[in-house]
Amino acid sequence: MLTFPIVDTHVHLWDISRFDYAWVKNVPFLNRSFVLSDFDAARGATDIGGMVFVTCVGDTAQWRDEIAWVQSLASDEPRLKGIVGCVPVTDSQTALADLEAVRSRSGLLKGLRPWHRPMDDPKYVDFVRCLGRLDLTCDICVPAEELADAARLFTACPDVRFVLDHVGNPDIRKGSFEQWCRDLAEVAKCPHVTCKISGLATRADHDNWTREQLKPCIDYAIGCFGFDRVTFGGDWPVAAQAIEYPQWVQTVTWAVEGCSDSEKRKLFRDNAVGVYHLRP
C-alpha cells in the first residue's frame, strides 16, 4: 500500500469530436472520447497527485492544437502538470523556432514524442538533439525489436533526456524475452535514459494475463535502470483493454513490496517530478 499520492507519467486524453485519431478507429474499445472525468472514474480511490499527458494524435498537423487543448484543460485541473506532445520532424533550425514558440505559449510542455523512422536518419538525430537544447524530454515508444536502434540513438544524443515508454514493449504474450533483455540492458547503459514502468498488461494476453507474468519484466527493468531512473505510468485508457487502473497500481505496488519507502517514492512520484521538471 502506498502512503503518498502518485504522479502518473503516462495519461492519454482524447476527444473524437475535436481531433482525428485514425489509430483508434479500428479498436472499438478505444473509439470514443476519454476525458478527465473518465479518468477520475477509472482511477477509483487511487490518490493521484499529478499526471503527465502523452500525445494521442497521429496526424502531426494537429500537434499545436492538441498541446493548446491540453493546456486549456489544466486551468481547471491542477493535477495536470506536464504535456508530452507530438511533433513533426523538421530541420533543426525550423524545429528550434517552432518549438520555442509553442513552449512560450504552453508552460506545461515538458517533452515531445516525435514519430519517425528510421531512427538513424541524420535529420531525425539532429531534430532530437534540438530537444536537448530546449531542455525538453524526448519520449520514445518502440517495439522490442527496435530497442537496439533506440540504444544507438540514445548514444548519439548524450545531451537529451530520453524517456523509454512501456519498458521497451517486451512480447509477454509470446514469452519472448531473450533479445529484449539484451537490448534493454544496452539501453540502460545510457545514463540519460529513464524507463517507464507502464503498458505491460497490454503486451500480454488481455484476457488471461497474471501479475506473476508481469513481475519479471518489472524486476528486470528496475534491475537494469535502478530506482533512480524508473517512473510509473498508467497508460490509461489504452491499458484498460487489459487491466483496470487500480489493478495496475496494485500490481506494480505488489511487485516492489519488499523495497524501501524511499525507492517506492522514486518510482511512483519523485523521479517523475525530476525527469519532466514538473512544478510542485
CATH class: Alpha Beta
Sum up the overall morphology in one term.
Answer: globular
Q: Roughly what percent helix?
A: 25-40%
What's the average pLDDT? 95
Radius of gyration: 18 Å
The secondary structure category is alpha/beta
What is the CATH homologous superfamily assignment? Metal-dependent hydrolases
**Low-confidence blocks of residues:** none
Instruction: Let me know the largest β-sheet.
Output: 8 strands, parallel
Structure characterization notes:
It contains nine helices and eight strands. The protein is an alpha/beta fold. The chain has one domain: TIM Barrel. Strands 1-2-3-4-5-6-7-8 form an eight-stranded parallel beta sheet.
Write the layout of secondary structure elements.
Blueprint: E1 6-11, H1 36-43, E2 48-54, H2 63-74, E3 80-85, H3 92-105, E4 109-112, H4 122-133, E5 137-140, H5 147-156, E6 162-164, H6 178-188, E7 193-197, H7 211-225, E8 230-232, H8 245-255, H9 261-275
Parallel strand pairs: 1-2, 2-3, 3-4, 4-5, 5-6, 6-7, 7-8
Quick overview:
By secondary structure, the chain is an alpha/beta fold. Helices cover 39% and strands 14% of the residues. It has an 8-stranded parallel beta sheet with strand order 1-2-3-4-5-6-7-8.
Features:
about 40% helix; 9 helices; eight-stranded parallel β-sheet; about 280 residues; alpha/beta; TIM Barrel; single chain
